Structure formats: C-alpha cells, structure tokens
What we know:
Blueprint (H helix, E strand, L loop, with lengths): L2 E6 L17 H14 L5 E6 L5 H8 L3 E4 L14 H9 L8 H8 L1 H10 L7 E3 L13 E5 L13 E2 L2 H11 L5 E5 L5 E8 L5 E3 L3 E4 L13 H5 L10 E4 L4 H17 L4 E9 L5 E7 L9 H8 L4 H16 L3
Parallel strand pairs: 1-2, 1-3
Antiparallel strand pairs: 4-7, 5-6, 5-7, 8-9, 8-10, 8-12, 10-11, 12-13
Amino acid sequence: MTIRLGVLLGDPRLPYDYAPGGVFGTEELEAVENLKRALSTLDAYDVTYFDDHEVLIDALREQRPDLVLNLCDVGFRNQWERELDLPALLHLLGIPYTGADPTAIVLSNDKSLMSAAAKMRGVRVPLERLLDPRGEELPDIFPALIKPNVSAGSAGITEKSVVHDRAEAAAYVRDNGGDTELLMQEFLPGTEYTVGVIGNPGADFLVLPPLAIDYGALDDGLPPILTHGSKADPDSTYWDKLVFVQAELDDAKHDGLARDCRVMFERLGLRDYARFDFREGVDDEPRLIDANVNPTWYEGGKMCLMAGWAGHDYAAMLRLILEAAATRVGLS
C-alpha cells in the first residue's frame, strides 16, 4: 500500500519574525531540502509538499492526502501564535495528520498549565509563580528565571532572564511585561536534559537516549540557559557556544526521565512524537521545565541526534514518526 503523504511546511514567501532577518534564511531552506532528500528514500509514500499558505485550504481540499506530516511548527502564515490553526484545519477537512491536536498544543505551550498537570501526576517541576500583570509583589525564589508563560523556541529568553534579586526581577518585568504573561521559576543550576519520544501509548513507544547540554564554552558571566539568540541569532554571544552530547545517566535517573516522559505524553494528549526538557536542581534531581509538541524536525537537530544514538538515521526517524501516525489512524 502506498500512502499519499502531504508534508505541511512554513511558507518561504511570507515574513518570518522569529529569524533575525524577518524571512526564512539559509538554515530553514537547507532543512527543507534535507527533508525532501530523506523522504524520497521512503518507498511507502507518494509525497506532495504544501508550503503556499495563500492557497493552502484549496490545495488540501483538491489533493486530499491520506496523511499529512505536519512540520509547520512556525504556524499558519508563519505566525507562531497560529500554530494550532493548522491541525484545526486538517481536523475540519477530515485529513489525518501527525503530531499534537489543538488542545494538546494549548495545554503544552502554556507552561503554567503544563506544570500543574505534571504536579498532579507526580512529576517534579520547579518552584514557580505566574506573575500578575497588575504588579503583585514578586515571590522570594531567587535566583530565578523569568520567561514568557506561552512561547516556543526560547522566544523572550535572554541572558537577563536570570535574576538574582527584586531589583533585577522588576527590571526584567518592566522591560518584557506589558501584554506578555510572565512565569517566574526558581533557577535550576544543574545539568539540562532533553528527551525525545516517538510512538503512542498502547503501541510502540520509543524513548530516545537523552541529550545533555554542555554550556562550558559560554563566556564568563553568561547564565547557562537556552536563549532565543542561541537558536536564532548568529550575532548572539550564545550562538555556536552550546554543545549537545549524549547524557551519561545511571539506570535510576534514566528510568525516571523515561517514566516522566510517558506520563506527560499521555496527560497532555500528545501523539506520535514529542520532546521533553528537564533540568536538575541543587539536589541533582531533574525537574520538568518544558514540553515540546512540535520539536525541531531538522536534520542535525536534537530529535535527529537522539534518534541517531538509538541507531536511526534521519530518514529512519521520519519513518518511525509516520508509522506511528499511520498505525494510530488505521492506515498501516
């Protein structure tokens, strides 16, 4: 059986505010070419690409794939806040798709809701407070990390996000608040991990070898955090300074991370694949800090690195995601 596969991508014709230049750059365009090469090696799929958002609805209606690989993590018309519009559209059209549905996207992207869900299931999270925009007194949890409560790609996180006293916290809130809801968390000084998963509960569910972030090359005085600049701005002092390595974990810590990933995957209603971020406190115990419903799919990205450590190259990783979705919707 050959599956007519639609691949949904961002629109390179439209502005893209996440990138410093405001448009898709070399990295984004090369990622798409690498994706096309990898998918061309999968014999079970007849692939069509959808990246023109001006005609997207009509194109999907007319060509109607059996399954859509939803890789448009930049949102409809490259507007991240409209990320959930695309799975909602596919749902309305009755076209099965990979990845999270709109409800799961909302629950996962709201960091305070995600943390509340984690605590109810016994998953450890940092001490935190959702800041009142009317200016309530700041909680006494210094040092702290302040960041937007709803965001992706570390948007809004800079070296000034780590604050050590009320004066620094007030300055960050003053400069970054406004209409943006902010979350204040205890700053966790230990190792940061990310764990990718592929599959679905009740079927094959693969927990990939965890990744650790090495901040050792950062300039002195910079807090060891994943900033927006580390991911998107070549002029940032964080750019090219972070190293991703396979985490060295004892069995107990590895099994604990794997358990937390399974619990949160089910609790948030995720599907097919996801990535979870953890960071250790002063007690060396990991706490969940983020759930990524549409983790970066680029060749060489974190998911790809972790899949490689498990023995799956880029094309094989994509195949695993597609097979998970096809099994879930009854196509395989």
